[in-house]
Amino acid sequence: MYMRQRNISYALTAARLYRANGDTTYANWAAQQLDFYADNYERWPLRTDAGRARMFRHGLDEAVNAFPLLETARLLSEFATWARQEQWATRLFRPMAENLKTQRYPMTNIGLWHGAAIASVGMRLRDESLIQYALDNPEGIRAVLRYSITADSIWIEGSFGYNAYVIGCLASLLKHASIEGYASRFAAEWDSARQLLLAPLAFRFDDGSLPTPSDATARLQAVDPGSHVQLYRLVPSYWGVNRARESLSWEALLDPPQGFVGSEPALPPATTRDFPTVRMAVLRAGDWQAFVHYGQAVASHAQEEALTYELHQGKTAITSDPGTVTYSSPYHTRYFRRGAAHNVPMIDGEGQSRWRPGTVLNFDAPQARLVVSQPDYNARASAEREYQALATGFVETTSVVLKGAAPSPARIGGAFHTECTVTPLAGLTGSSGQSLPGSDAMSFWTVAASYTAGSEWSAKLQCGAAAYRLRVSGSGMQRVFMATEPTTPLPNRRSLLYYDTSATRANFRTEITALP
User: What is the pLDDT of residues 80-102, one digit of tens each?
Assistant: First the structure.
């Protein structure tokens, strides 16, 4: 895959060099690459385990790489003979579009990439039937966008990383449409790109970062430079135009950015708000801000993280979601997507068992307070949480109840993950004979110390120059563990606190306040 992607990118670079300096050596080499793909495309086996593809294993890879291939062909249109271009059209681009018509992933980012690639092939070949199919079939571009851009203007898969990935798809489609003379056909998609570009600003922490819900592999800034640059001609913004102006790229060389000189616009802080269609909320009081991910809207890219939260005071991150690593890694499948990697309730070491939207029981914006329930948190238990941001800190209350008429006691508790240094304060008695629940995900933890506690205990969080008290109260006879865990980027590690009690129901209250 990487070899072929690199070769395709080199072919595009060669075609651009030809257009820049007229040297046909570059044009000839790039055209030979297209000849090779056209000669062999239908000879390669059709792979159907992840969409339909011949050049790659995954249909998504073929859809994404259709754009540089089409751009290469366009740039060579004054060099290649009509017969040669017709070979590319009939033996490469049209069969590729026909393969992509069979979509295994409707209403997801993958389905959108498929539709965008089909439409772009249709525009290059001037094939109205392909364009119409890509736009208006029941799983086409417009159907996917109607379904997947939520009323909160965030992509339904609940990941800011995939929100940015979809912007990349729309940017590729819209640039292609503009160059090929079809811009007027995509006015609605233009507006979709604008919505997705600006909506994340409502979630920004004071340090400019975004939360990391779902299985994103990178922590993004609210003003994502990559997204703004990709759209600098289509949805021009101060950040996109000025970053493009500073960049050494083919895009900026061929289409120099104009306008938006001067000072950077000041962005207002995020405010308390519920985002029900993506099952997220922002709670803000003074400079304390919490992000809550209380459920999932769809299964795609969901992790076992319902009821988790991230917390900042001003520009200080107290607890953050690290995201995940490449999906083929055991760290993704066995750890980062599991409950043990998140600030969630846990039953015998396990968190949420499958995706659920959850239920909002109360949202009080003036009080920056949210109460949510997960009645089917997992097969064994229901869970409810209340969150409140205060001018003096943050409070979270958890209630877990085992299911059944007479359930056997389980180890009910929770975890708190942080990049801060953790030290014990009060209410903790050292105990070396304790062990963690037998969860596979917890095997990635390294226990530094274990304690017993009554119904209340506390620890100190040293977050750079800022210090905080984390105080847990509630059900008595608790086991408490201080440990380290993997975090991104690997092989880094960070601190965590885990606590539990043996019961059929349990309640815990966590308060985080600043220390002098």
Answer: 999 999 999 999 999 999 999 87
Q: What is the pLDDT of residues 212-260, one digit of tens each?
A: 999 999 889 999 999 999 999 889 899 999 889 888 888 888 778 877 6
d(CA 91, CA 110): 24
261-263-269-275 Cα dihedral, nearest 10 degrees: 0
| CATH superfamily assigned to domain 2-254 | Chondroitin AC/alginate lyase (1.50.10.100)
Helix-, strand-, coil-residue percentages of the chain, each rounded to 5:
35, 30, 35
DSSP assignment letter at 8: H
- Both tokens assigned to 267: 């962005």
Query: Between the CA atoms of 316, 318, 323 and 324, what dihedral angle is there, to the nearest 10 degrees?
Result: 120
Q: Which residues contact 244 (CB under 8 A, 6 or more apart)?
A: 229, 232, 251, 252, 257
| Contact indicator for 360, 370 with CB cutoff of 8 Å | yes
Topology of the domain covering 273-514: Beta-galactosidase; Chain A, domain 5 (2.70.98)
Q: Contact 395/388 with Cβ under 8 angstroms?
A: yes
Compute CA distances 463 → 248, 309, 317, 369, 468, whole Å.
38, 17, 7, 25, 8
